[in-house]
Amino acid sequence: MTQREPSPAVPSVPDIAVAPAAPAASAMPAGTPSATVHGGGAWADFRRRVGKNRGAVIALCVLAFLVLVALIGPYITPADPNAQNLRAVLLDPFSPGHLLGTDQLGRDILSRLIVGTRVSLLAIGLALVVAMVVGVPLGFLAGYLGGRFDGLVMRLNDAAMSFPPLLLAIALVAVLGPSLRNAMFAVGILMAPRFLRLVRGVVIGLKEETFVEASRSIGTPTHMIILRHILPNTLSPLTVAIAVTAGYAMLSEAGLSFLGLGVQPPDASWGSMIREGFLYFGRSPWLGIFPGVLIALTVFTFVTLGDGLRDALGREERTES
Fold first, then answer.
1. Cα separation of 228 and 142, whole Å?
2. What does the angle CA 130 – CA 143 – CA 197 come to, to the nearest 5 degrees?
3. Residues linked to residue 102 through DSSP beta bridges, in sequence order
4. What local confidence, expressed as pLDDT, does residue 213 receive?
5. What φ, ψ does residue 108 adopt, rounded to 5°?
6. Cα–Cα distance between 43 and 49 in angstroms, integer?
7. pLDDT at 32
8. Residue 103 and residue 245: Cα distance in Å, rounded?
9. CA geometry: angle at 269 spanning 265 and 273, to 5°?
10. What is residue 46's predicted lDDT score, i.e. its pLDDT?
11. Alpha helical stretches, state H, the chain
């Protein structure tokens, strides 16, 4: 019997410690937000997006400066904004003691501009509060409930939007009486249909989402669905709408004050100062130019901020370069 020759021994290969392979990019769950990759959560991602938008950052700085002036304005005015001096009427800018000159009654223009900052921003805030209190709840109910209630609300909303805004505001102020509060109440009522249509459209789209249907199927009450799921998802478009509508509110306040239906003498607002400067434009054009420039700058600030927030709060995730 032939013996089989022993096979040559195979040298053993030493064990090599292999590091675990990094997960492939394709292994990440689809739809993972970029905030998870960079860390810090949604708030950090929002700040990063806003920080990349130079226009939004500048607009935030300008708005913060205006708010600061509105808060401390009465304490930093170089003179009494309502003090009259008939011996120093219509002084040119850079006059001694009056950096921006004086008006037709000898009042310091710079002091009145500083005090008018608070009045103008207060008017914007009042109009936005009225518009949101009226428009947002009705938009939620109309979008979520639908049916006849939705039809009735939208017919009334369309009727309100069919009137010329300025004429309707003048009519409301004529009934309520000329004052800043009544003027901004009228402006808020006119802006409410904008918020109503916006919120209604967002809610109609959200209530058909899968996570809302799942919550409804397990018996979650309607008010809890609205508070937990629908309301947080409406904050993004609502924030953008507030920033953009604030500029419209400022223009409306300036227009009503120019017509004498807003701030009443001797109080100052940028719109009332334009009205006073219009009467003396040939003699002292700076009376209307200075408040006009501030109004244009503030409106542009709100519009730029709204565009920046729209980019930062967009629902679609951006691909990082």
1. 18
2. 50
3. 108
4. 78
5. -70, 125
6. 10
7. 40
8. 31
9. 75
10. 64
11. 34-38, 41-52, 54-76, 109-145, 147-162, 165-176, 180-206, 210-217, 222-225, 231-258, 270-279, 286-312
pLDDT at 315: 42
Sign (positive or negative) of CA dihedral 90, 91, 92, 97: negative
Q: What is the pLDDT of residue 42?
A: 54
pLDDT averaged over consecutive 10-residue blocks of the chain (321 residues)? 48 44 41 42 66 84 93 89 89 90 91 92 92 91 87 89 81 84 88 91 84 79 78 81 89 86 85 87 88 93 86 52 36
Q: What pairs with residue 108 in β-bridges?
A: 102
> Sign (positive/negative) of CA torsion 282, 285, 291, 293?
positive
Counting beta carbons within 10 angstroms of the beta carbon of residue 206, is it exposed (0 to 12), middle (13 to 18) or buried (19 or more)? buried
What span, in angstroms and rounded, lies between the C-alpha atoms of 292 and 277?
10
| 8 A C-beta contact, residue 249 and residue 187 | yes
Q: Is the four-CA dihedral 169, 255, 114, 124 of positive or negative sign?
A: positive
Amino acid at 245: T
Going from the C-alpha of 201 to that of each of 137, 144, 150, 237, 321, the distances in angstroms are 13, 10, 11, 11, 33
**Rounded Cα–Cα distance for residues 102 and 88 (Å):** 7
Half-sphere exposure of 296 (CA within 13 A, CB side): 7
- Where on the phi/psi map is residue 10: left (φ > 0), alpha (ψ -120 to 50), or beta? beta
Closest CA to 89 of 110, 78, 105, 101: 105
φ/ψ (deg, to 5) at 152: -65, -45
pTM over 0.85: no
Dist. CA 30–CA 298, nearest whole Å: 42
Rounded-to-integer distance, Cα 141 and Cα 145, Å: 6
Rounded distance, CA 167 to CA 185, Å? Answer: 14
Residue 229: phi, psi to the nearest 5?
-115, -45
Q: Write down the residue that tokens 């899968």 correspond to.
A: 210
